[in-house]
Design a protein that fits this description.
Blueprint lengths: L1 H15 L10 E11 L4 E11 L6 E15 L2 E12 L12 E16 L2 E16 L4 E16 L4 E12 L5 E15 L2 E11 L4 E11 L4 H9 L1
Parallel strand pairs: 1-11
Antiparallel strand pairs: 1-2, 2-3, 3-4, 4-5, 5-6, 6-7, 7-8, 8-9, 9-10, 10-11
C-alpha cells in the first residue's frame, strides 16, 4: 500500500510541474511491444504505437518498429532495427510543424542489473533518420538516446515502472527532448503484461502530458522453427 501511495504522489508531482503545455490537452499513446524468442541467442522485436494529441482524438503519430535482438547473455542485448514513422503536425499550427514520413535505422545496446528488489535497465540507442516532409523536402538527421529504467516488483502480479530518457541531436541544437515516465504494471500471464502510466515529454519550448497504455506480449516462438527443421 505504501508503494502505491508513493506512485500516486510521484504522478501528482509530475503533473504539477508540467508548466508549459504543448496544446492544453492530455494526449495519449496506445502501444504494443513484443519480444519473440526465435533461437537460443536471437529474438525479434515488434512494436506499434498510436499517438494522439488528445486521449481519443486528433491523431498525431503512427510508429511501427522492428529489430533483430542478439542476446549476448541474460543481462546484455544488442539490436539492429528499422522504424517507420508517420506524423501529422497540423493540429498544432505552430511554426516548423508539418506532416512527415520517416524511415529510421537504429542500433541499440541494453544492459540490465539488479540492486536489492530494483531492476535497472540501461538502453543506449543511435538513430539515422530519413525524413520526407509534406512540402516535398527531405532531410537526414542523426540522434543519440539514453534511457534509464527502474522496475520495482510489488507482488507477483503488480509492479511499478519508471524511466527517464534523454534525446541528444548530433546536429544543430544538442538537446532534443526528455521523457519522464511512471506507471503501474500488471502481469496478466507469464509472458504478457499491461502498463498504465503518465509521460511528461519535454522539448525546448513545450511540455506535453501523455497518458500511456502499453501491452507487452513476449511469446517464445523458437519451438516453431525447431518443428519446421525436423519436418
Amino acid at each position: 500500500m505504501k508503494k502505491l501511495i508513493a506512485l500516486g504522489l510521484l504522478l501528482t508531482s509530475l503533473f504539477t510541474h508540467s508548466q508549459i503545455n504543448g496544446e492544453g490537452e492530455l494526449g495519449a499513446w496506445y502501444m504494443y511491444f513484443g519480444t519473440n524468442k526465435l533461437a537460443e541467442k536471437w529474438s525479434l522485436h515488434t512494436e506499434a504505437q498510436f499517438r494522439y494529441f488528445e486521449t481519443t482524438d486528433n491523431f498525431n503519430q503512427l510508429l511501427l518498429r522492428t529489430g533483430a535482438n542478439y542476446h549476448i547473455n541474460q543481462d546484455a542485448i544488442a539490436t539492429l532495427g528499422y522504424g517507420f514513422i508517420e506524423t501529422d503536425g497540423s493540429f498544432l499550427n505552430l511554426p516548423g510543424e508539418t506532416n512527415s514520413k520517416e524511415h529510421r535505422i537504429f542500433e541499440q545496446f541494453i544492459l540490465k542489473n539488479k540492486v536489492w528488489e530494483l531492476l535497472f535497465e540501461h538502453r543506449y540507442r543511435l538513430e539515422q533518420r530519413f525524413l520526407e516532409f509534406a512540402n516535398n523536402t527531405t532531410d537526414t538527421q542523426h540522434r543519440a538516446r539514453y534511457r534509464l529504467q527502474v522496475t520495482l516488483p510489488l507482488t507477483n502480479t503488480f509492479f511499478l515502472n519508471f524511466y527517464d530518457e534523454l534525446f541528444i541531436n548530433l546536429q544543430d541544437d544538442l538537446f532534443g527532448q526528455n521523457r519522464l515516465y511512471g506507471a503501474l504494471g500488471v502481469h496478466v500471464t507469464e509472458n504478457s503484461s499491461v502498463q498504465i502510466g503518465y509521460l511528461r515529454n519535454q522539448f525546448t519550448n513545450a511540455v506535453y502530458d501523455r497518458l500511456q497504455i502499453g501491452i507487452f506480449y513476449n511469446p517464445d516462438l523458437s519451438g516453431l522453427f525447431k518443428k519446421k527443421s525436423k519436418s
